Amino acid sequence: FFCSNAQVVLNEDFEGGIPLTWSNENLEPLGDPSEIWTIDNSGLAYYVSTTAQYMYTAAGMSGNYAIFNSDAYGLNGAEDAALTSPAFDCSGLSTVVLSFNEWFTGGYNGAAYVEVSADGGSTWTAVVNYPTTNTDLEYGEQIIDITSIVGTSANAHVRFRYTGDYSLYYAIDNVVVQQ
């Protein structure tokens, strides 16, 4: 993806772990609050291959990436884990594009969402939705025009959510919001 007048307003590759400026929480009131996003750097696509580093070769991730591994948490109650960016300012941008690399392994009632907010996180709009009925693998780079949602917001956010309970996983890397 190339943009000749690119202005980057958010850029996170998780090489330093999950930044303290990002919110990382289990939103499920009855869920275990310790079941949150973590960092992995194996490149392994768990439950797909025990040896191939598909996260790197097929999904375009590198080094550290954020992952919500529901399966690793076991049957401890419902999960609604959200990894939310700090606020970013789109007020001077004419076009706003979100890009990231992802790997979603579907099944067992797990679901993944990528949502954006223009009002500081009061309301969210899904731009990617892998529902509980999706048993496919979803991976690679996503490039999404979010201009119609965040418009000229000075208090925009993006968040990555996973819902389930012992329901496989969702991984993301290289999150960029830019003009």
Classification by helices and strands: mainly beta
Number of helical segments?
3
* Low-confidence segments: none
Approximately how much beta-strand content do the residues carry? 35-45%
End-to-end separation in angstroms reads 12 Å
Q: Portion of residues in helices?
A: under 10%
Largest sheet: 6 strands, antiparallel
What is the helix/strand order? EEEHEHEEEEEHEE
What is the residue-mean pLDDT, rounded to a whole number? 94
The backbone outline, from C-alpha atoms, is globular
**What would you call the quaternary organization?**
single chain
Query: Using DSSP, what is the number of strands?
Result: 11
Radius of gyration: 16 Å
Question: Gist?
Answer:
The protein has 179 residues and is mainly β. It has 3 helices and 11 strands.
List the keywords:
globular; 179 residues; 40% strand; mainly beta; single chain; six-stranded antiparallel β-sheet; five-stranded antiparallel β-sheet
Task: Summarize the SSE layout with pairings.
Blueprint: E1 8-12, E2 23-26, E3 38-40, H1 54-57, E4 65-69, H2 70-73, E5 79-84, E6 97-105, E7 111-117, E8 125-130, E9 137-145, H3 147-150, E10 157-164, E11 169-178
Antiparallel strand pairs: 1-11, 2-5, 3-4, 4-11, 5-10, 6-9, 6-11, 7-8, 7-10
What does it look like?
The structure is a single chain. The protein has 179 residues and is mostly beta strands. It has three helices and eleven strands. The protein has helices at residues 54-57, 70-73, 147-150; strands at residues 8-12, 23-26, 38-40, 65-69, 79-84, 97-105, 111-117, 125-130, 137-145, 157-164, 169-178. Strands 1, 3, 4, 6, 9 and 11 form a six-stranded antiparallel sheet that branches. Strands 2-5-10-7-8 form a five-stranded antiparallel sheet, with no helix packed on it. The radius of gyration is 16 Å and the shape is globular. The termini are close together. The mean pLDDT is 94.
